[in-house]
Design goal:
Helix content is about 45%, strand content about 20%. The protein is α/β, with parallel strands linked by helices. A five-stranded mixed β-sheet has the order 3-2-1-4-5, with helices on both faces. Strands 8-7-6-9-10 form a five-stranded mixed β-sheet, sandwiched between helices. The protein binds 5'-O-[(R)-(carboxyoxy)(hydroxy)phosphoryl]adenosine (KG4) and zinc ion.
Length: about 350
């Protein structure tokens, strides 16, 4: 143990008893460079996000080298912005938190290195956070009264999980995708409609003006009762669009977008509701980038109302990647006495369960 490690261990014990704990968190797992200050895991004091989307849109997807370079260039500025917005100095920060996986290794390393440097310089504890756990914790920031146990559907660009949140930081997997993530499927479907990266949000908007019954799409089969599958749906959609192009058949883009969105959302809602019925779920939360989807939010609300389930939706600005959600997750880990040494490394394929 180094002197820093010993100091951290002692400081964590003090913080567990402290009334007001303010954590500065850094997020750099993909294409957003973000820093935020969060108090007691529930209150956002600041939330600075620099999105690299325009830098990657040109290439139709995230270019890892460009992402890493931009994180290195922007991370310090985001930390300064987060402190300024919170009206705090670096010395007033109680602990530093960082996403250490899953994500792009080079991108993750930028945040991990910055957080390690700050923690060492200020001799404050360092808390490693799983990005997916961060997405779930966005709900603690939006709904102050939400406490485990509850069920959470995490749908993002890289993940689609249905989880039981048994306690803070304690999860049981109910179902997950066997192939593509929901966000990935949205982005690929958008691409064949010539919608720029990331296609999900724009496809969602376009779908609002289309007919969801215009293009019939298959219902995928899955291994587990609560598992998802989006790859077959995506391929069927891409093939249908290409077939129409070859035959000179035209269909409104809005109708195609609406049909695809309805198929993805239909599957997410049906599987979640099947679990709700069979497992007796009473509290459900959505999380991740795709939880911003308009139809998913509306359909889930309708179905939950019908079954007397309380639905928790993260605020729209907290659905996508941000550091406030990392600061929230870090607080609950810290309260359990969890922290990292300076040997912390990025783990691109880190799992939650
Ligand atoms: O959580 P997130 O920001 O990053 C990951 O951790 O992956 O999720 C990004 C994903 C992208 O695939 C994006 O297209 C999708 O979320 N997304 C949406 C919407 N907003 C973001 N998909 C469908 N409808 C939306 N409104
Ligand atoms: Zn994310």
């Amino acid at each position: 143990m180094t002197r820093y490690d010993e100091l951290s261990a002692a400081r964590v014990e003090e913080l567990k008893k402290q009334e007001r704990v303010r954590i500065l968190a850094i997020e750099s797992s993909c294409d957003e460079t973000a820093a935020a200050v969060v108090e007691n895991g529930r209150v956002i004091l600041s939330n600075a996000v620099f999105t690299q989307i325009p830098m990657h849109a040109l290439y139709g997807g995230v270019v890892p080298e460009i992402a890493s370079r931009a994180h290195v260039e922007k991370v310090e500025r985001m930390v300064d912005e987060a402190l300024k917005e919170a009206g705090m100095t670096m010395d007033e920060v109680d602990a530093f938190a960082v996403t250490y996986g899953p994500g792009l290794v080079g991108a993750l390393l930028c945040g991990v290195t910055a957080a390690k440097a700050l923690a060492f310089a200020k001799q404050k504890p360092l808390i490693p956070v799983n990005h997916i756990e961060g997405h779930i914790c966005a709900n603690f920031l939006t709904s102050p009264g939400l406490e485990p146990p509850f069920t959470c559907l995490v749908v993002s660009g890289g993940h689609s999980h249905l989880l039981q949140v048994e306690d803070y930081g304690q999860y049981r997997l109910l179902g997950c995708t066997g192939d593509d993530a929901a966000g990935e499927a949205f982005d690929k479907a958008a691409r064949v409609l010539d919608i720029p990266y990331p296609g999900g949000p724009l496809l969602d908007k376009l779908a609002d003006t289309g007919n969801p019954a215009a293009l019939p799409l298959p219902r995928p089969k899955t291994d587990g009762r609560y598992d998802f599958s989006f790859s077959g749906l995506k391929t069927a959609f891409i093939n249908a669009v290409h077939n129409m192009e070859q035959k000179g058949v035209t269909m409104e883009k809005a109708d195609l977008a609406a049909s695809f969105r309805a198929a993805v959302v239909g599957q997410l809602v049906d599987k979640t509701m099947l679990a709700a019925k069979e497992l007796g779920i009473s509290k459900l939360a959505l999380a991740g980038g795709v939880s911003a989807n308009g139809l998913l939010r509306r359909e889930m609300q309708k179905n939950c109302d019908k079954r007397g389930i309380t639905l928790y939706l993260p605020q729209l600005k907290l659905c996508g990647d941000n550091a406030a959600m990392i600061g929230s997750a870090a607080y609950f880990r810290l309260m359990k006495g969890e922290y990292a040494f300076l040997s912390l490394n990025a783990d691109p394929s880190l799992r939650l369960v």
